[in-house]
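// run 5 | inverse folding | seed 20
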């Protein structure tokens, strides 16, 4: 009776969730994703925050739409690599992923100084994960653990001790990836270096990069993590190039269609977005605030404007509501619109996609942590009950259908954006 009751409760929850969604209008150096691939983003509570995973999925949806990926996040609070081994077959392999990213080690290290036994246990579990992915014909992008914050986690000397321990676990990750012929993303070294630079620049006030609790990063640290994994996936960062001739026509690369262009003004329709940032540039809960210390725009977010035929020493570019002045040489070489114009014509459309991705990833946490756990137990109990077993399969199908609907909604939110770039001689007034 208890099993049937739980089955009924899950059925009710799925029925509610199945209602139509209200969706608002270490560098691999080589792309390891293929068109139509299934990508899983796996980790502990830092992954379950659904922040770096959301950045990644939104980026891959709007910045590399040609890949047409299927993505799922599988974060689980408090988990270790060994804990994931116990749920790997049901929660990962059953989806038949082509690529999966992993970020463990924070809990595995025990929040104390490194010991050989800790390293051995962690290494054995990470090797099991990687070997299982390899046997399934998938790629495992092995990420090292991140860091604890130098300002907000216990005392600074304690943070340094545990960061050294996490660094050791990262070295183990690197060796496992190398031995298996898999890519590796060194989140630890990157986060530590960026944290030191950012905190040195914010003297007089705390600027947590790895979170107010010292462990769970806010949007600043999460952008660092997303950067490391996107680099590890090998994305090029080329969003497109728009070339404007002050005395002639304009042209653009794939993903950007010139609707009209003459005398320094070009109207375009784009089916490829730059990544857009949000929040207060001075606060940790903003993706903008870490950009001065992280080459995200340079490496992953290049929407380049090249202007030819500027007669004077300077010219002003207007894009959306903003205008900025650049030198003739800067414009001839090319400026990165994504880095220069935060409040740009893509911001509103970008937010709609990002919101839809956030809704989908929120459902994934319920689906994996609650529904799948219950259904797994029910399936075992219903082995000899044909009617009960059939009911379990129906609910599993409904869970999958709901996930598919949310994935389609996120892609449907990604629509072409029309925008205009105007270049005039002289400085902005």
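// decoded
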């Amino acid at each position: 009776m208890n099993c049937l009751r739980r089955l009924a409760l899950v059925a009710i929850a799925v029925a509610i969730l199945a209602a139509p969604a209200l969706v608002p209008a270490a560098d691999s150096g080589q792309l390891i994703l293929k068109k139509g691939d299934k990508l899983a983003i796996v980790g502990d509570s830092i992954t379950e925050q659904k922040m770096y995973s959301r950045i990644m999925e939104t980026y891959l949806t709007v910045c590399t739409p040609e890949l047409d990926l299927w993505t799922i996040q599988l974060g689980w609070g408090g988990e270790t690599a060994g804990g994931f081994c116990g749920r790997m077959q049901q929660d990962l392999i059953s989806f038949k992923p082509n690529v999966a990213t992993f970020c463990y080690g924070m809990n595995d290290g025990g929040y104390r100084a490194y010991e050989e036994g800790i390293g051995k246990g962690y290494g054995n579990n990470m090797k099991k994960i990687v070997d299982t992915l390899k046997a399934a014909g998938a790629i495992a992008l092995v990420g090292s653990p991140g860091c604890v914050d130098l300002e907000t986690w216990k005392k600074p000397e304690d943070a340094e001790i545990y960061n050294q321990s996490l660094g050791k676990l990262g070295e183990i990750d690197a060796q496992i990836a190398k031995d298996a012929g898999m890519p590796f993303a060194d989140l630890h070294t990157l986060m530590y270096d960026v944290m030191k630079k950012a905190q040195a620049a914010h003297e007089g006030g705390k600027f947590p990069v790895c979170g107010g609790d010292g462990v769970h990063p806010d949007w600043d640290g999460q952008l660092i993590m997303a950067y490391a994994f996107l680099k590890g996936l090998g994305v090029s960062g080329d969003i497109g190039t728009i070339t404007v001739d002050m005395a002639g026509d304009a042209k653009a690369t794939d993903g950007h269609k010139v609707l009209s262009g003459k005398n320094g003004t070009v109207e375009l329709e784009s089916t490829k977005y730059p990544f857009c940032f949000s929040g207060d540039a001075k606060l940790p809960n903003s993706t903008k605030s870490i950009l001065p210390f992280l080459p995200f725009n340079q490496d992953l977010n290049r929407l380049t404007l090249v202007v030819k035929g500027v007669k004077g020493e300077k010219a002003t570019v207007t894009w959306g509501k903003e205008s900025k002045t650049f030198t003739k040489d800067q414009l001839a070489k090319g400026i990165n619109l994504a880095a220069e114009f935060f409040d740009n014509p893509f911001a509103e459309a970008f937010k709609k996609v990002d919101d839809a991705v956030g809704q989908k990833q929120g459902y994934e946490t319920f689906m994996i942590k609650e529904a799948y756990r219950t259904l797994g137990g029910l399936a075992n109990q219903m082995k000899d009950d044909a009617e009960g077993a059939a009911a379990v399969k129906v609910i599993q199908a409904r869970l999958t259908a709901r996930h598919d609907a949310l994935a389609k909604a996120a892609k449907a939110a990604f629509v072409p954006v029309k925008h205009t770039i105007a270049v005039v001689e002289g400085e902005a007034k």
